[in-house]
Amino acid sequence: MALRVGVVGGGQLARMMIAPAVELGVDLRVLAEEDGMSASLAATAVGDYRDAETVLAFARDVDVVTFDHEHVPQSVLATLVDAGIAVHPGPHALRFAQDKLVMRARLQELGMPQPDWAAVTDAEQLQAFLDDHRGRAVVKTPRGGYDGKGVRVVSTGTEADDWFATLAEDARGGALLVEELVDFTRELAQQVARRPSGAVRAYPVVETVQRDGVCAEVIAPAPHSGGRLEDVAARIGITIAEGLEVTGMLAVELFETTDERLLVNELAMRPHNSGHWSQDGAVTSQFEQHLRAVLDLPLGDPSPVSEWAVMVNVLGGPTNGSLDDRFDAAMTEHPGAKIHTYGKAPRPGRKVGHVNVVGGNLDDVAYEARAAASFFDD
Ligand SMILES: Nc1ncnc2c1ncn2[C@@H]1O[C@H](COP(=O)(O)OP(=O)(O)O)[C@@H](O)[C@H]1O
Ligand SMILES: [Mg+2]
Q1: 248-257 and 262-268: which strand pairing?
Q2: What does the alpha-carbon distance between residue 349 and residue 347 come to, in Å, rounded to a whole number?
Q3: 179 annotated binding-site participant
Q4: Which pLDDT score, from 0 to 100, does residue 16 have?
Q5: How confident is the model at residue 1 (pLDDT cuts 50, 70, 90)?
Q6: Which residues bind ATP (predicted)?
Q7: What are the φ/ψ torsions at residue 329 (nearest 5 degrees)?
Q8: Rounded mean pLDDT of the chain?
Q9: Substitution site in 129, 138, 255, 263 for ligand 1 pocket (most atoms within 8 Å of beta carbon)
C-alpha cells in the first residue's frame, strides 16, 4: 500500500506537496478548511483544524500527519499523539513556531544570536524598553501573525495600546514581544530538513526581499554567501533543528546586520516561501524533502542545479481576469520561466503564485524572473 501523508491545511504549501507526492507515489491527503482551497485537488476532508474530533478522524487514515500552517492548537495535537498517530513536526517542536515569545526564550537557552528582546505587558514596560534601545523598537503579537501582520515599529510606549487591550480581553492573558529595531543590510533564510531518526540536510542560505512585511523575491544562494556566511547560517539552522527536535522542513529567517552578524528573526516548521526556488533550482525541492523527512525516508540532495535561482512572488494578481489569461503572453516572452499558481482568486497583496528562473548569470536570471512575474499583476 502507498505511504499516506495527511496534511492539515489546504493552502498553497499543501498544494505544492501534491506534485512530488504523485512522483513518489505517496498518497497525499489534505484536510482543507473549506471547499475550493489551493490544495483542494488532494482534499479528502473539509473541516475545522481546531476541532479535535475532525482532525483525529482525518488522521486515523494516514501514516503521518503534517501541516500547511502552524495554527493547529496544542490540545488538538496532544489528542493525535495520545491516539498513537505520528505527527511531524511534533507538538513540542511546533510550540516554538506557534509563539514568538516561547521561541525567543528557547533560542536564548540554545545560545543562538538574536535581537535584544523582552516580554512586555503594558505601555510602561514598552517605554522602558524603548528608553534602553535608542527610542525605536519592533512590537510583535506572539501568536497568529504572518506577512507582517502583527509586526509594528514603534517609538513611544503607547503605540501598542490596542494590542495590549486585545491581550487583556484574552482569558489566557499574556504579553507582547518587543525587539530592538535591527539595523540590517539584508534578510536571509536558512532551510534545514530533519528526519525523526535525526539526519539533517541544509539548503544553501538564500537572500529574501520583503516589501511591506511580505516576501517579494528570493535569490538562491544569497549573493556573497560563500565560505563563512554559508557555514555560519547552516550551523545556526542545524543547531535549531536539532535543539528543538524539528522534524520535516525548518526555515530560519535571519537578519544580516551592518556589522556582519547573523541574528535569528523567526522560525517556520513547514515548507516556506524562501524555499520555493528549490522546485526548479535544487536537486530535491523543499516539498519533496518535507515528504521524505516526515515519512522518515532518506533525505534528498539539497544542492542547487544551477549557479543561480531567483523566485519572484506574484502578489495580488491581475485586477481583471485570471492568472491563466496571461499565460500566453508570459510563456511566449519567457519560455525559461517556471510559472507556479496557487488556484487562489486575485486580491490585493495576496500571494497567488510565483515564478522561478534558474541560470548562470544573476542579472539575467533576476531580470527574467521579474519580467515574467510582471505579466501577472497590474
Ligand atoms: N527586530 C526587527 N528589526 C527590524 N526589522 C524587523 C524586526 N522584526 C521584523 N522585522 C521586519 O518585519 C518583517 C516581518 O517580521 P516577522 O517577525 O518575520 O513577522 P511575520 O510572521 O509576519 O513574517 C521581517 O521580515 C523584517 O523585514
Ligand atoms: Mg517572517
Answers
A1: antiparallel
A2: 6
A3: yes
A4: 98
A5: confident
A6: 100, 140, 179-182, 187, 265-266
A7: -65, -45
A8: 96
A9: 138
**Ligand 1 pocket member 253 (CB < 6 A):** yes
DSSP state of 198: S
Q: Domains, the chain, ranges and CATH?
A: 4-87 (3.40.50.20), 116-180 (3.30.1490.20), 184-374 (3.30.470.20)
Beta-bridge partner residues of 311: 218, 356
Q: Which atom of ligand 1 is nearest to the CA of 115?
A: 1
What's the gap in Å between 369 CA and the centre of ligand 1? 25
Summary count for the chain: helices (H), strands (E): 12, 17
> Ligand 1 centroid vs 58 CA: distance in angstroms?
34
Give the model's pLDDT for residue 299: 98
Tell me if 323 sits within 8 A of 346, measured CB to CB: yes
CA–CA distance from 147 to each of 241, 344, 350 (Å)?
23, 17, 10
The amino acid occupying position 17 is M
Residues 6+ apart with CB under 8 A from 6: 29, 30, 31, 58, 59, 61, 62, 64, 65, 66
How many Å apart are CA 227 and CA 199, to the nearest integer?
Answer: 23
Q: Is the confidence at residue 170, as pLDDT, over 80?
A: no
Q: What is the DSSP track for 204-269? A: PPEEEEEETTEEEEEEESPTT-TTHHHHHHHHHHHHHHHHTT--EEEEEEEEEETTS-EEEEEEES
- pLDDT single digits (tens) 266-324: 999 999 999 999 999 999 999 999 999 999 999 999 999 999 999 999 999 998 899 99
- What does the pLDDT average to over 187-191? 98
179 lines ligand 1 (CB under 6 A): yes
By DSSP bridging, strand 206-211 and strand 214-220 are antiparallel
Taking only the tens place, the pLDDT of each residue in 248-259 is 999 999 999 999
Contact 243, 235 (CB under 8 A): no
To test ligand 1's pocket by mutation, which of 69, 100, 265, 272 has the most ligand atoms within 8 angstroms of CB?
A: 265
Phi–psi pair at 130, nearest 5 degrees: -60, -45
Residue whose C-alpha cell is 481583471 = 320
